[in-house]
Write a sequence for this structure.
């Protein structure tokens, strides 16, 4: 299981695309959050009135918050895509899991067979003793 598997070119490209999407979305969240924090700082006097500046900052924060939400939704879609990729393309892991379960069930079967054989032998001995007692008694 620790060995590295070679993926076909299309799968490798798809995984690189997933990695790029992940980095882009995280960068977008970080950049927008940083800009929201910068916008929240109150600046000294500027040429624009405070009300106008406040409205502009408010609008910018809304846009950046929407960008953060979009990037978060994109990350959720990426997680969904990765799960689907894993389910559809990870046959070695599925085969390993099936083999492991098969081996566990065979071990359980062998244990049950041993217990049943032991139980059969004990019952045979007890039955033999009971038959011997019955046939040697005067009630037969």
């Amino acid at each position: 299981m620790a060995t590295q598997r070679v993926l076909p070119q299309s799968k490798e490209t798809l995984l690189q695309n997933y990695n790029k999407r992940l980095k882009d979305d995280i960068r977008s969240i970080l950049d927008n959050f940083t800009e929201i924090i910068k916008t929240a700082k109150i600046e000294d006097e500027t040429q624009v009135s405070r009300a106008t500046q406040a409205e502009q900052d408010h609008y910018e924060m809304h846009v950046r918050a929407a960008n953060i939400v979009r990037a978060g939704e994109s990350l959720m879609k990426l997680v969904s895509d990765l799960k689907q990729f894993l389910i559809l393309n990870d046959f070695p892991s599925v085969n390993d899991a099936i083999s492991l379960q098969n081996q566990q069930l065979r071990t359980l079967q062998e244990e049950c067979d041993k217990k049943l054989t032991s139980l059969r032998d004990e019952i045979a001995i007890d039955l033999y003793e009971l038959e011997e007692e019955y046939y040697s008694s005067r009630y037969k």
